[in-house]
Amino acid sequence: MENKTPISPLSIENADRIAFLITGYIRSTLTDKEKDELDDWITLNDHNVELFARLTNPSQLDEALKSYNSFNSKKAISIIKAQLVEQQSTHQSKVRKMKWLPYAVAASLLLLVGIYVFTRNNTPVKVHSFTSLAEIKPGSGKAMLTLATGETILLDSVNEKSLQAGKLGFSYDNGRLVYSPYTLEGEQGELQYHTLSVPRGAHYQLKLPDGSTFWLNAESSIRFPSVFHKTKRQIEITGEVFVDVIKNEQQPFYVTFSANNNGRQEKAEIKVLGTSFNINAYKEENNTSIALTEGKIQVTSVTGNITYMHKGQLAMFTNGKINISPLVNEEEMLAWKNGWFEFKNASIEAIMKQVSRWYNIDVEYKGKINYHFNASIERNVTAAQLLYLLEQTGHVHFTLQDNKIIVKP
């Protein structure tokens, strides 16, 4: 065994590491080196032995998870650690600190282990009725590129050399598709268009020649020209896309999309110079929304009315009208881009729309669920892990039938 400094049970900074090691023990995934590291920590003192026994008790772990109604993993960790740091900084005697901290760290570790077991590892978790659902993996980076010629390219099965060999102007950069056509200025006349389509159970990034970057959520697309016209840049999107536009006052950027107008899908448009915003324009959603995080944009509604938006505002399209309000839930609106599910007072129907798209599975309801959920869960978990956490509220239950999630009270 190599010499190393044992992990102290009082180390707030090492709480994540201890949780990781104990989780690995529970799931039998530790390497020999990690087993030695865990052994060193356990045998450091009697308190660690007692704490380890508690943390590896299945009933204790299950009860700890049930006590958290929102399962907000990233916030729970930060809150617990902040509390521990605050407690350490108070004017208590050293002896009193030593007595209190083991219990505080024990509580935080219990939560951390629960979080790691159910949200930090992609290995399927066999949890009661979710054994089959555990095989349903989260979305991955894949898309379909349809060229102006009609040729299609599966971007999850082609490598960078294949794209470059075709001399199409496409290449890869850290999992992102980069388009750099040989002609950078469009000529007068009809332009040819390429389309990047992201299916259910996927996400993708695209960077265009001007440097503007787009994050596409599941069931989304972006239609862009083979070259930008020298007086303007224009694209068309469907679904949900986060847009980061490079500023160019001589070549303004236009984003067209469809919004609901009394049951009809009609075209609307955004004009930008340089800004960042999230647009949710799924056709099956009742309302289209724009969350402006940087800059200023001009929005033209389906009825032709023009509205200006500023940083920190939210636009909702309802029956052809645009309603502007402060953007108070930016974290929730951008959660998908940052790898999270953020549910704030959300109905089960709103949640399952995201689940259906992200895990590429259909949903059926049997009974009405009159409850709104609050949760913050990483999007890299399996369907089983996500649904198990939601079930712990006691207000909803899930089963898998004919490759379809059945939702019941």
What fold name goes in the CATH topology slot of the largest domain?
Answer: Jelly Rolls
Rg computed from alpha carbons, rounded to a whole number of angstroms: 25 Å
Structural class: alpha+beta
Question: Would you identify the regions where 5 or more consecutive residues have pLDDT less than 50?
Answer: 1-12, 64-71, 79-107, 117-129, 183-189
The major beta sheet can be summarized as: 18 strands, mixed
Number of helical segments? 10
Helix proportion range: 25-40%
Number of domains: 3
CA-CA gap between termini: 53 Å
Mean pLDDT: 75
Percentage beta strand: 25-35%
How many E strands? 23
Q: What is the CATH C level class of the largest domain, in words?
A: Mainly Beta
- Architecture of the largest domain, according to CATH? Sandwich
Shape: globular
Domain FecR protein: 195-297
Organism: Lacibacter luteus
Keywords: Membrane, Transmembrane, Transmembrane helix
Transmembrane segments: 100-119
Give the gist of this structure:
The protein is α+β, with helices and mostly antiparallel strands. Helices cover 29% and strands 32% of the residues. It folds into 3 domains: 107 residues, no CATH class; 77 residues, Phage tail protein beta-alpha-beta fold (3-Layer(bab) Sandwich), CATH 3.55.50; 194 residues, Sandwich (Jelly Rolls).
Describe this structure in words.
The chain is α+β, with helices and mostly antiparallel strands and 409 residues long. It contains 10 helices and 23 strands. The chain has helices spanning 15-27, 32-42, 46-55, 58-66, 73-89, 94-119, 160-165, 330-333, 348-359, 383-391; strands at 140-141, 144-146, 152-154, 170-173, 176-179, 193-198, 202-207, 213-216, 220-225, 233-244, 253-261, 264-272, 276-281, 288-294, 296-300, 306-310, 313-318, 321-326, 340-347, 362-365, 372-378, 397-401, 404-408. The strands form 3 sheets. It has an 18-stranded mixed beta sheet that branches. The radius of gyration is 25 Å and the shape is globular.
